[in-house]
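Model: You mentioned two targets. I'll fold them one after the other.
Researcher: Yes, keep them separate.
Model: Target one:
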Amino acid sequence: MTAFLKPVDLFDLPRRASEEAPLAARMRPRTIDEFIGQTEIVGQGRLLRRAIQADQLSSLIFSGPPGTGKTTIAQIIANTTKAHFIAINAVLAGIKDIRDAIATAQERYRQSNQRTILFVDEVHRFNKAQQDALLPWVENGTVILIGATTENPYFEVNKALVSRSRIFQLKPLTFDDLKQVVEQALHDRTRGYGTLNIALDPDALDHLVNVANGDARSLLNALELAVKTTPPNDQGIIHLTMTIAEESIQQRAVLYDKEGDAHFDTISAFIKSLRGSDPDAAMYWLARMVYAGEDPRFLFRRMLILAGEDVGLADPNAIVVVNACATAFDRVGMPEGRYPLAQAALYLATAPKSNSVMGFFDALSAVEREREAEVPLHLRDSNRDRQGFGDGAGYLYPHSYREHWVAQQYLPSNLQGQVFYQPSEQGFEGSIRIRVQRDREAQLAALIEGIGIEMPETLTVSPANSSVDRWIARSLGQVGETLGKVRDRIFTIAQPQRHHVILDLNAGSGLLVWEAIRQVPEGGVYARVQSEKDFAALSEQMQSLPELSRPILVQALPESIPFDRIIGRNALQAEVDKADMVASLASLMTANGRVVLAESVPRAAQRLYRLADPSWVNSKLYDRWQQAEEAIYSQSADPKLNWTTQDLHSYFEQVGFEVELQTEQTQTEVYLSESLIDRWFTSNPSQLTYADHLARVLSPTELAQIQRIFSTRLTNQTVIWSSQTAWIQARKSTS
């Protein structure tokens, strides 16, 4: 029998809350409710929190800086899950440890049908062979992998493992989060310093939090050092002053591994600041890299590249200055070499910018794409084959002409007229731009003189479908295209983040629900349906999704979940009391939440009488028809019709929203099929039809005459259909 693998001591000290353990280990949260920070990932309603509470975890990878809670969340999972939990550290473990863990997992499942979670700290430290050794067991479900890494998993972890895991990115803790960590440590009587009389000055607390730089572990280590090295005064109080705080955490923790993500992210920020002509940001990122010990020669190499790529001919001296500064640095070294380093950065940040040298890559693309062309005869080397083949014959020597220029062919014949270099208007390049353009125009004019251009033949093919079938397909396609545009615009305005919790107010059609699920994979989606039929339909549709990825269907507004985004299409139309509904939305939103709605405006909808030519009926009937149809849209008792866009604007403002409301008139082509017209003129017990509304004013004879117009003149016709949409974007007022 295979012996069960005993987990390493990764979590032993926190579990025992040993007095000998460091404060940071003792204060490690044990439950999800004790966890501080990362609300975007483990806050109420978020996917990870629901997965932990439901014990339905799939393979996960936590990525983020040190001290942000990666290992802590793993410990919480260990404390919560019914699965067997094995923890290893990739720095110390090897293939043998992986095999032992797999054997234990297989034995556990065989004996008690118990799953195994394998936590791998610093998972990026595993080499390719070690990561490959994990892959088949993760893939077949023998173990559920939870990895933790300070690096970008998309670069440092096996792509196959990444594709089978859900990635969660943890951010440095905020100032308020870290203050809460200190308060928790000072008041916890079991694991912290709640039994001691500690007085922490506010400025000392601020210093500790600021220098910790988002790292809870660094903060608690500094607090522990301060407490242990400060004796109580005569009153038995351990008084932690600013001086003590400065001594306990003297230098800010800088996350900067020269081969890791911080290195690449910081140099990227530096280069983008130079390119964006922001000298202040350039100085900050440069200082941050120098402070962390970056090699200045690497920085000079990157600045030399930028001088050619992003400054170019806008300031030809830029590359000269940067090269001179690099030479000066090599002569004087550090620390004085920081002066030429900063000078080079400031010169580039304040220089005019042009990336016209990128024309070279357009030319390179043409070389790769086009058939290789011969060098024009007059441009060939005349020293070798002038007598035999005439190479070089006809070449015009520019210096023999006025202004040392003459129009002649330089590109191969198949590339004549091709433009690779696009001079900018910046700096020095702006002064040569006009000359380059004029020379180019004159050269092209000279080359095409007398040359005829034959336009290619245009071929057209008629579709085989009948006109009716074609218009039906086109109309259906336009409906889908229109709805797709509405969906895309809603999400463009809403700008949801991956961790957001979204409420779809009117999810019956599913138009917004499935897109929301795609856009917030680490958050959650609540779908409000307004009928049992819609509830059953969505329930059926979502069965193919993993359980934790499914929307949560509700028929009433949830009361305990704060939503980051509330979205909907025609979500307010059926509400009898729209003002009350808007007020309810205000109570459901987070502080930075946003409501985005697209509401069709019935009062501005297409009128059917306008589809008919007035000459088709006598004028009196047309006027009565018009009055009868307009009366439909003035009914005060119908919640779908008794409102205006001004009403909606007012409802949102009354409950403290800052609201932007825009109306958009659209026109689409609609195919009037026989079945559609029949629906308009056939009574429906469950809902009043168009004919039912008209019958309130018109006689049966008049109504039959109007129906005959549609049947004989408009059936199977395509018409222009007008509609109006109100786009509503609302936020909680900050005033």
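Model: Target two:
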Amino acid sequence: MDNALSIFEERMTMKKRTELAHLSIAQAVCVLILLLFVLLSVASGNFKVNTDTTMLWDINDGWIDENGQVVDLYDLAPGKQSVTLDISNKNVDGKAICFKSIDTNFKVYASNGMIYDYEPVMPRQLGASYGMQYHTIAIPEGSSFLRLELEPVFTNISAAVNDIAISEAGQYMTGVFKRNLFSFGQGSTTIIIGILFVIAGVTGQIVMKSTGIDFISFGISCVMIGFIGFNDTLFLQVLTARPDIVRVAEYLCLALIPFPALSFFSSTTGESHPRLLSGMFAACLLNVFLQIGLTLSGTSDYYHLVNISQLMILVSFLLSSILVFRAVRRGQIKQTLLRSVEWGLFACILGAVIDMLRFHFMQSYGSLTFTRLGVLLFTAFMGIYLYRDHIDSLQKKQRESAVFASEISEAFAKVIDMKDPYTNGHSVRVAKYTALIAKEMGYDAETVEKYYRIGLLHDVGKVGIPKAVLNKPGKLTDEEYDLIKSHTLKGYEVLKDISIVPELAVGALGHHERYDGNGYPNGLSGDAIPEVARIIAVADAFDAMYSDRQYRKRLDFDKAISIIREASGTQLSPEVVDAFFRLVEKGEIKATK
């Protein structure tokens, strides 16, 4: 009954798996249909947007300086500037002048006088620069001109105003965030990835333990880079209305990033570098305190000292490259990890170099777009490595478990055969015949190996049979025969709780069931008998006849196989018997001396 219940449960499990597979396919089809509908709608639609024709984007043209000369607002000369725009012929009712200022104090005048003054007073520890901020300034009704008096925070640079427009304030800010959506997504994704790596590292997930890699440091680096990336979107600046604090926090992140980055790459080499990491940590702290000190004293500013942080980042990447190169030469790093680290490191260095060049030559003001792309690529490479490493680890454990199970099975088989010197080697021979038949029937290598182990332990229940009964040379009494038959149930009880190969118990329980239903212990018939038990039954019957016993010599080979053929359809499964005789024809099962 237990065997029948096991078969029923197995069939129900297979049914559930099939249902889940069908459900997954159905869900995928639904998603595909939805995507196709959206794509077709976009391709065939003729949707027209009602635009506000009075919204004047990019009003860079028409500005004149105090000398009446036309100026390019996006390319001003260093120092203070006063520029004016004639708006008498523009519809500006209900509109605002909107723009982004970068390290520039300014005042805005309209026909009726000054309407806006932006010159933030910041604590000394935050320096002189506030970074970047968006402004939307309502234009008074009836205004005929606008004048901007611009004064850069640092005297040696130009006043910087970008994205200037006359628009409805809400529409302008919506457009700003739409244009910066990609950068916002990059930064958010990088932060989320970093947090996940930190959580995984702190909680000690099995993947992190098995790799030995410092993913906490990698996660911290990602969080810092993602936070700096919000500089592009100005989301935090607008949300907090404190662009100065956001700016300084970003600069300090730049100053600290070299340490966790180096710590991560150091861990990939499989070797600890405590002195190097301690030195980098001390250098990062020194850089932070140096920048704070020089800014507090008014000697310099974070804006000018960012070069030190950028240099340290490059040094960190250089040291990381050297560590990885040394580990490769010493054979201390896995090839799969090496490829991921090499490509990831290259992507990070290339992205960092591009952003540094943009900062110095294209006035990108600390944009880390390419650095974030490098980090995301590196994360993808590490994700691929982790997946492969996890699969390799699982496969290794599976192989080790298979070897262990096989060795344990063989050890048990020897114990079983030691119980009866006349049948010594019987369990191993039955297991070999079982494996040959299973392979001939088309089972895969994994199943063949599993059936071999099941065959080894099919008679484990005989350990519980008294030796006097098991080795009795004469005819058994009914009570003794019943005791012998109980070895199937005893074997089942011994093996039923071994979860690594649950079919072990099936083979022990069912190998004396008959195809016609007259076997024991449960009287199962036909396909109700588990396949492995039907195979073992043929292998066991053949070896029982073709080996010496305490009460008789072994039968002739031809006689033994003829009895096997006669038992087909009654005692033995016809399908298994057919496979057995194909092996005989091939010479894989043959007479021995």
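Researcher: Noted. Anything on target two?
Model: The mean pLDDT is 80.
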